[in-house]
Amino acid sequence: MTSKEIFQIGVNEIGTTRVLRLIGDLDSYTSRRLLFAVDSWIDNVEKLLVNLDQIEYIDSTGLAALVAIWVEAEKRGVRFILSCKNSRVYRILEITGLLNLFNLAEGSTTSMPTVGGAPPIISSKREQKTPPIGGPTSFMRNKRVGG
User: What is the pLDDT averaged over residues 116-122?
Assistant: First the structure.
């Protein structure tokens, strides 16, 4: 069995702003790890800037995680800022109405403090599973259609 690295979080601090650079897939498999990590990173800062530029895939669980982080930041008096230069992810935020909820980094496609080569703090690996013999539609080949 092989595994593929699917999610990383880079962390950097710029003054009183903590910058989280998310890389890879933000989905039901990785969102819990993000929420667990952010719980400790949200303390002792004025601003939490989450950079989605390198997110390759985001599902509803990933969006819900972003909302949960925003809610927790509000509770703790931390300003939550989102940066997104990724047009696909930006479009999803736009369609879902979340752009109206989050504070966006200025221009949100141009102004993001560079986090340089911040090392990943968390890596997740997802095992690649082999589909069952015959593949997912093999049962259909044995069905008689139309009579």
Answer: 43
| Count of residues making up the chain | 147
Residue 4 has a pLDDT of 62
- Is 90 exceeded by the pLDDT of residue 147? no
Q: Which three-class secondary structure state does DSSP give residue 65?
A: helix
> Which alpha helices (DSSP H) does the chain contain, by range?
31-41, 60-76, 87-95, 138-141
Residue that is written with structure tokens 């090392």 in the block: 119
* Among the listed residues 85, 22, 83, the one whose alpha carbon sits nearest the alpha carbon of residue 58: 22
SS3 42: coil
CB within 8 Å of 57: residues ≥ 6 apart? 24, 25, 26, 27
CA distance 61 to 45: 26
3 falls in which pLDDT band (50, 70, 90)? Answer: very low
